[in-house]
Amino acid sequence: MTNQNIKLSAIAATVVVLIGCSGEQAKAAPKAAEAAETVAAAAAPAAAMAAEAADDAAAAMDKAPTPEAVAGGAGAATAAGAAGAAEGDAAGGDSDCAFTLEVGDALAFNTKEIVANKSCGSFTVTLTHTGNLPAAAMGHNFVLVPMDATQAVANAALKVTAAENYVPDDDRVIANSKIVGGGESTSVTFDISGLSGDYRYMCTFPGHWVAMQGVFRVNG
Question: Nearest CA to 200 among 186, 180, 219, 216?
Fold first, then answer.
């Protein structure tokens, strides 16, 4: 209720009092009206404060986001977080056309299978030696050959030296890296557009090939 409405109510009450009173009652009416005005004046600030609070509440409701907007914002944040995670994974891991092959001071690659897609055209293998022993004592390489040429190429590798990375001059060798020792890394990129199916990758350092081999699969 506004101040003006409160004053009008007080005046109306006074008129009623004047009409309904006579004699001594009429003499008392002005005092009753004055009292009513006093009460109205005292109540006016509280009424004004209540009206202002109501206006503020209404304004706050108008500015508050709808449930749909809140849900939409949460969905957008989730999507953005997922996009950020995906981007981080792509930056830190291998792509479809590259692979990091790790090996340490033991006779074992960290995986027994590498999968490539022919649509890449070329493929890159990065060989990382995570051990501590030097190449002369525990060197490793990556050599890719047809499955049925595994043992023949491995035997031929026994006839070459470390200077040749223990890789024979053999047409059956599709791709190969150099020998690396502990803490070293090397990469080899090769054409896979003419490959299809399964091939053998292995380490041809003397005595390693039996334990250190896996399948290189070309799909597409």
Answer: 216
